[in-house]
C-alpha cells in the first residue's frame, strides 16, 4: 500500500496558514498592548487582557483559536485517508476546497467578522470533512 502524498499537501498548507494567523495575532496584540502600555505580566491569561482589547484585535485571536478546533478533525481524516492509500482524485479536491474555505473563514473573521458569512463557510467546511470521511468509509465496502 502506498501513501497518497497529494492529500498531504493541503494539510501542510493549512498548517502553514495557522502559523501565518499566529504571527498576525501576536503582532496585533503586541502592537495594541504596547500602545496602551499593558505590561506582558497583565496578559498571563488571555481572559485577563481580552476585555482591554478592542473587538477587531480579539477576533483575530479568536480565529487563531478556531484554527485549532474543526481543522484538527480535517487533519486526522486527511492523514488517515492518505495513509490508507486512497488520497487521490475527489479526496484531494475536497481537501483543497476545505483549506480554501478555512482561509476564507480566517479572512472574514479577521477583516469584517460577519457571523452569518463565517457560519456558512464553517458549515460547508464541516460538510466537506464529512464527505471525505464518507467516501473513505465507502472505500472499505
How would you portray this structure in words?
- It is a single chain.
- The chain contains six helices and no strands.
- The chain has 141 residues and is an all-alpha fold.
- It has a single domain, classed as Four Helix Bundle (Hemerythrin (Met), subunit A) (Up-down Bundle), CATH 1.20.120.
- Helix 4 runs antiparallel to helix 5.
- The radius of gyration is 18 Å and the shape is elongated.
- The chain starts with 7 loop residues before the first helix and ends with a helix.
- One of its GO terms (molecular function) is thioredoxin-disulfide reductase (NADPH) activity.
- Its main location: membrane.
- InterPro entries: MAPEG-like_dom_sf, Membr-assoc_MAPEG.
- Pfam families: MAPEG.
Global morphology? elongated
Mean pLDDT, as a whole number?
93
Number of helical elements: 6
Termini separation: 17 Å
Order of helices and strands: HHHHHH
The CATH class designation is Mainly Alpha
* Unreliable sequence segments: none
- The structural domain count equals 1
User: Structural class given helices, strands, pairing?
Assistant: mainly alpha
Helix content range: over 70%
Tell me what portion of residues adopts beta-strand conformation.
under 5%
CATH topology: the name is Four Helix Bundle (Hemerythrin (Met), subunit A)
Work out the radius of gyration. 18 Å
Q: Could you give a short account of the major beta sheet?
A: none
Present the secondary structure layout.
Elements (H helix, E strand, L loop, with lengths): L7 H28 L10 H4 L5 H12 L3 H15 L5 H22 L3 H26 L1
Amino acid at each position: 500500500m502506498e501513501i497518497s502524498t497529494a492529500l498531504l499537501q493541503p494539510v501542510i498548507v493549512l498548517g502553514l496558514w495557522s502559523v501565518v494567523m499566529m504571527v498576525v495575532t501576536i503582532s496585533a496584540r503586541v502592537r495594541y498592548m504596547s500602545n496602551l502600555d499593558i505590561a506582558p505580566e497583565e496578559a498571563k491569561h488571555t481572559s485577563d487582557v481580552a476585555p482591554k482589547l478592542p473587538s477587531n484585535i480579539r477576533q483575530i485571536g479568536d480565529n487563531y483559536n478556531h484554527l485549532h478546533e474543526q481543522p484538527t478533525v480535517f487533519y486526522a481524516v486527511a492523514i488517515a485517508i492518505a495513509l490508507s492509500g486512497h488520497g487521490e482524485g475527489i479526496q484531494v479536491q475536497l481537501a483543497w476546497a476545505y483549506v480554501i474555505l478555512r482561509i476564507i473563514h480566517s479572512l472574514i473573521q479577521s477583516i469584517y467578522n460577519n457571523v452569518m458569512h463565517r457560519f456558512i463557510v464553517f458549515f460547508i467546511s464541516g460538510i466537506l470533512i464529512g464527505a471525505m470521511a464518507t467516501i473513505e468509509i465507502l472505500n472499505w465496502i
